Amino acid sequence: MNQKQKSLSTISKLIDTGYRLFALKGFTQTSINDIVQEAGYSKGAFYAHFSSKEEFLIQVISERVQGYFKKLESILYKEEREMVELFAIYSAELATQAYKESLSAILFELVVTTNQYPHAKKMLIDLFENWRASLAYLLQQFQQKKLIRNKMDARILANTAISVFHGFLLQNYLDERVAYLDFVPAFLQLIDPIDSI
């Protein structure tokens, strides 16, 4: 295994271990020591790849959600009649993953602490902007192809999707009577697909 492969392997193991610990103990209760000890590395290995715990968590969240956005990109190459349905399916898959991994709760905890760390705050803003831009582009395509009736600005719709997604997950985190998957039909009602799913 060459140096680049070792480095990627280290990053991958740290990310998997860190996310599992964040989901189990929470962001503030998980230390860098916890992560490196559980992963079998030194603090030096951690700091060789990440400048802070906050930057690390942003990278972890980004990696966890990246597959969803790759799936969203693939929707654009499907038949029009499948596009909104696939959006709903992929969104439900992401919600289930986020629920199982406490993504919204961990993200909320990070948001609360980022004012103390301007670099981490900038990274988090950029992460949300990437999510917003990807969703806005897809929703704009839905509008142009006349797959949805809602003509609201696609960026506003994307912000709404992100808010509804995390809102349902956070409410479910507090109260299991709130079904986190209800965000899918709620958002679909908002965008108002031409063909019912």
From TrEMBL:
The keyword Transcription does not apply. InterPro entries: Homeodomain-like_sf, HTH-type_Tx_Regulator, HTH_TetR, Tet_transcr_reg_TetR-rel_C_sf. GO terms for molecular function: DNA binding. Residues 31-50 bind DNA. Keywords: DNA-binding. Coiled coil: none annotated. Residues 8-68 form the HTH tetR-type domain. PROSITE patterns: HTH_TETR_2 (PS50977). PANTHER family: ACREF/ENVCD OPERON REPRESSOR-RELATED, ACREF_ENVCD OPERON REPRESSOR-RELATED. This is Transcriptional regulator, TetR family.
